[in-house]
DNA sequence: GAACCGATTTTGAACGATCAAATTCTGTGC
DNA sequence: GCACAGAATTTGATCGTTCAAAATCGGTTC
């Protein structure tokens, strides 16, 4: 296996200088047609590939984005994060960018990691996942002027001391609003909401969609809360439905809770009670439950636009006084008829 | 923000030469104690971080491993792959390695991607996921002498023309064997197996564990097959159980099928019929089903050992005539009692 | 005290690309 | 035919690190 060819080799083969080869690669429009063709032929013939490290060293750009792969769902469910990272990798590749993973157990550790990677010139930007109230990471990144975009809204307590940062997220309220309207139009007016305990940004956002749709329609329905647990959801729903049999449908904050609710309804002899979940997981599909599907692919596209501009091929530094840019993706309601009941 | 310090700056601050600083970083043992301390102090004081690109350029090593993140489960289920990639990132980091993602829709495209990354000096090695019969990727990697390890066995058709490659995998047969023995010991002797259609390496491997355990015990039980679908599993199991009510327990090739089987049994008024799944997904946990848990963290550790040796901090090139090294991780049976029935 | 050896440290060169500035073309106007 | 402007191309320097070889240091030996 011969040594890999360099710009110099290509230049020699094409009878031009190093820099012209470089220009053909990076600014083709300033090279005259015949020259460009000769160089391109030489590139193909020699099988030349630019050496990334040399380019990085000279340009001080790594064309790489860092992402932390969550070990456990931290606000963003496993499948959603998976699809997001995959889409991000794919679209980043189309724009000449790479995605580098890093691991961290705590926000502090994550900051250390990012510091290493940024100072070492390994990444140009970061995509944060699972943002929370008073996130220490965002402040640090802003102070260090590291370009970043968060997947998830800044659930800030409205102090406004810090300038907002760029983010992309799924419009949870729009999802539950659509789900609620669907049930109002097809099942009846008494639609319940089964959510997480208040306080989580994501959960409250989804609850809001139900609230608004109910208010718009002048309808009323009970609101139940429980932890993210199929078993708990089942017990809670069974009790609540027994007490309040007039419920015509249930909008749930997640598929797990929806499955719990569905099992409870089935157990009470009401397998046809419409239940809508959130995330459109394979389990919901298998049981024939309707669900709100997030579209992480679109979030990924939004993240890249925020990071690189609508068409750019390099990370853009945005100044703090820029408008807080964001992208809010509207999810899609997947309507299904429940499979034949168990009991 | 001042320019980042270089080895030169550190050298000046510590009153030594560039190379000595480099030695402190890469071969501390050849530097005299007092000198080393002085240099280390200067590193800390200046907040020096080596510039990765420069190092890569000089050493021709990127200390980076490429991994393709599957969009959909291709033989390896989503959660398992997730945990695997996460563990890989974490352990690679401990060894001074990074994990770079790449996207590809087809094996051919994947080969192109890997070619770009390897020739560009962006990655030193590749971890393949979802290997299949007659995998075109492995041959290409071997020809190009790109170090790689597969997560998943080479399900080769025994031609032996190609030297085997390194791989790490979960011992599916051991998992179903344990599950079968558990049911034989606690439920009865007529244990059924619910698997995928024969022909998939993974599925056949898991079936083998059941077969062997049954043969060892001199027991007999029916063997059913269906696609990976909860709904199909439920229908099939319902029909089969109605016809063959003597079944004492069911070992399943996946959690989805196990849940289908459990729902079928519950529907027939036998909610307590022991069913064991595979993958230990949250759904199985929620329903209180026993399941075989893969340990992708151990697979990740095995992959790194195969790639870098038991303690090394750089990728080791192995020659084709080396023994085909592999790591087979024994999964763990998680025993649960089913939650109270639905019907 | 000179010669010598191994351990430690320093110096010069190189990795392969792009930037910035200098140079050479090309075509136009008079 | 000559000066000139803009386009196209080339040249020299540089990014920050490590390799390879040369130089220096410290301690023994005779």
UniProtKB/TrEMBL annotation, chains A, B:
Q: Which top-rank group of organisms is this from?
A: Bacteria
Q: Name one GO molecular function term.
A: transcription cis-regulatory region binding
Q: Write down the PANTHER family for this protein, in alphabetical order.
A: HTH-TYPE TRANSCRIPTIONAL REGULATOR GALS, LACI-RELATED TRANSCRIPTIONAL REPRESSOR
- InterPro entries attached to this UniProt entry: HTH_LacI, Lambda_DNA-bd_dom_sf, Peripla_BP/Lac1_sug-bd_dom, Peripla_BP_I
Q: Which UniProt keywords apply?
A: DNA-binding, Transcription, Transcription regulation
User: What is the designated name of this protein?
Assistant: Alanine racemase
Record domain HTH lacI-type: where: 5-59
Recite the lineage of the species: Bacteria, Bacillati, Actinomycetota, Actinomycetes, Micrococcales
Q: Which SUPFAM superfamilies match?
A: lambda repressor-like DNA-binding domains (SSF47413), Periplasmic binding protein-like I (SSF53822)
């Amino acid at each position: 296996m011969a040594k890999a060819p360099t710009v110099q080799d290509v230049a020699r083969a094409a009878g031009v200088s190093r820099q012209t080869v470089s220009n053909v690669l990076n600014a083709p429009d300033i090279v005259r047609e015949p020259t460009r063709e000769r160089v391109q032929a030489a590139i193909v013939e020699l099988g030349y590939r630019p050496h990334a490290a040399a380019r990085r060293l000279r340009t001080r750009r790594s064309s790489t984005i860092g992402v932390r792969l969550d070990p456990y769902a931290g606000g963003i469910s496993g499948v959603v994060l998976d699809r997001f990272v995959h889409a991000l990798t794919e679209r980043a590749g189309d724009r000449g960018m790479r995605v580098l993973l890093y691991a961290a157990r705590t926000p502090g550790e994550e900051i250390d990691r990012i510091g290493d990677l940024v100072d070492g010139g390994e990444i140009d930007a970061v995509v944060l996942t699972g943002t929370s109230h008073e996130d220490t990471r965002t402040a640090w990144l802003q102070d260090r002027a590291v370009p970043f975009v968060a997947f998830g809204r800044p659930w800030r307590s409205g102090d406004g001391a810090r300038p907002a940062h760029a983010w992309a997220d799924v419009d949870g309220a729009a999802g539950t609003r659509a789900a609620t309207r669907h049930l109002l139009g097809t099942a009846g007016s008494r639609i319940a909401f089964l959510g997480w305990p208040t306080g989580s940004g994501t959960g409250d956002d989804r609850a809001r969609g139900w609230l608004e749709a109910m208010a718009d329609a002048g309808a009323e329905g009970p609101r139940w809360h429980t932890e993210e647990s199929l078993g708990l959801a089942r017990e809670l729903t069974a009790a609540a439905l027994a007490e309040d049999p007039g419920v015509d449908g249930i909008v749930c904050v997640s598929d797990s809770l929806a499955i719990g609710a569905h099992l409870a309804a089935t157990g009470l002899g009401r397998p046809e009670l419409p239940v809508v979940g959130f995330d459109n997981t394979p389990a919901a599909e298998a049981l024939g439950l309707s669900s709100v599907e997030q579209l992480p692919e679109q979030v990924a596209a939004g993240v890249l636009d925020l990071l690189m501009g609508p068409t750019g091929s390099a990370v853009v530094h945005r100044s703090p006084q820029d408008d807080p840019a964001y992208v809010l993706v509207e999810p899609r309601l997947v309507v299904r008829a429940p499979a034949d009941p168990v009991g």
